[in-house]
């Protein structure tokens, strides 16, 4: 007697794949890859190996940053009656990978959407770094041009959180030096080849790590984690006087005292009294 083939409910399945070790593929993810009507992938050559490991012979459709809008629309149309698995080259789809437009438009079309949690290089690197993990910001890849990179770093320099970046080997030393320049010489970690045979995490200051990789760019997938800024030293009386004198050139005494109090974290009333003394 012939047994009916099990089918998945129609819709979109966001499948997290391994970031290195194929053994990290979850049983649920493997099942979806075996049962999906079609698997949308970044690179068919990369994903073919994972599908073989999962025992899947399902057809693949390329879907990446350069895919035409028509490809996305066809996938969404198929989701009305078929199951579509979304798979990136490594780790969780949409995390510094294409796919958010597919999810957004599939939801707008009323399609069923589910995610299968699994590996993420950013989260794995955080656990390896030894840096605070209570607050963190994922930054993806920094811009390649110097000014744009500096602007991106300046934007988050004051944020009291661990920062997480993806980077390539050839750019690593230069990017670490730029981080030291715009963020300060903070504690950091460089993790590469996570879950693979040559997994490595190097720690130190940004300047030390930049020097370490200056003449020896590493291979493999790289994640840089940078600790939050340290506590700023309290403002001195000289700092307060200089700030008050500058502010009083633009503002009335009361508003000048308020501005400096907010900027330096000092008592507004004491600054007001001091401003009157300076003005007198």
TrEMBL record:
Chief subcellular location: cytoplasm
EC number: 2.1.1.198
Highest taxon listed in the record's lineage: Bacteria
Enzyme class of the recorded protein, top EC level: transferase
GO MF assignments: rRNA (cytosine-2'-O-)-methyltransferase activity
Pfam families reported in the protein's UniProt record: RsmI_C (PF23016), TP_methylase (PF00590)
Catalytic reaction list: cytidine(1402) in 16S rRNA + S-adenosyl-L-methionine = 2'-O-methylcytidine(1402) in 16S rRNA + S-adenosyl-L-homocysteine + H(+)
Span of domain Tetrapyrrole methylase: 12-209
Protein name per its UniProtKB record: Ribosomal RNA small subunit methyltransferase I
Residues covered by the RsmI HTH domain: 235-279
Localization, UniProt: Cytoplasm
Keywords: Cytoplasm, Methyltransferase, rRNA processing, S-adenosyl-L-methionine, Transferase
Described purpose of this protein according to its UniProt entry: Catalyzes the 2'-O-methylation of the ribose of cytidine 1402 (C1402) in 16S rRNA.
Family: Belongs to the methyltransferase superfamily. RsmI family.
GO CC term (a single one): cytoplasm
């Amino acid at each position: 007697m012939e047994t009916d083939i099990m089918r998945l409910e129609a819709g979109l399945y966001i499948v997290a794949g391994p970031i290195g070790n194929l053994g990290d593929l979850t049983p649920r993810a493997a099942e979806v890859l075996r049962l999906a009507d079609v698997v949308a992938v970044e690179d068919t050559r990369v994903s073919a190996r994972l599908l073989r490991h999962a025992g899947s012979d399902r057809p693949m459709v390329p879907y990446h940053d350069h895919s035409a809008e028509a490809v996305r629309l066809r996938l969404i149309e198929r989701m009305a009656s078929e199951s579509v698995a979304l798979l990136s080259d490594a780790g969780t789809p949409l995390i510094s990978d294409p796919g958010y437009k597919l999810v957004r438009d599939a939801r707008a079309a009323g399609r069923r959407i589910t995610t299968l949690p699994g590996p993420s290089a950013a989260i794995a690197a955080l656990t390896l770094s030894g840096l605070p993990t209570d607050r963190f910001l994922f930054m993806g890849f920094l811009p390649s041009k110097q000014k744009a990179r500096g602007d991106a770093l300046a934007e988050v320099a004051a944020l009291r959180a661990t920062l997480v970046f993806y980077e390539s080997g050839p750019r690593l030393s230069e990017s670490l030096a730029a981080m030291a320049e715009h963020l300060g010489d903070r504690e950091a970690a460089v993790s590469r080849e996570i879950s693979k045979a040559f997994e490595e995490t190097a720690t130190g200051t940004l300047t030390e790590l930049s020097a370490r990789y200056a003449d020896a760019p590493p291979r493999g997938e790289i994640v840089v984690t940078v600790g939050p800024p340290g506590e700023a030293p309290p403002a001195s009386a000289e700092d307060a006087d200089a700030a008050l004198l500058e502010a009083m050139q633009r503002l009335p005494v009361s508003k000048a005292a308020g501005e400096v109090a907010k900027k330096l974290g000092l008592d507004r009333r004491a600054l007001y009294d001091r401003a009157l003394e300076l003005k007198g």
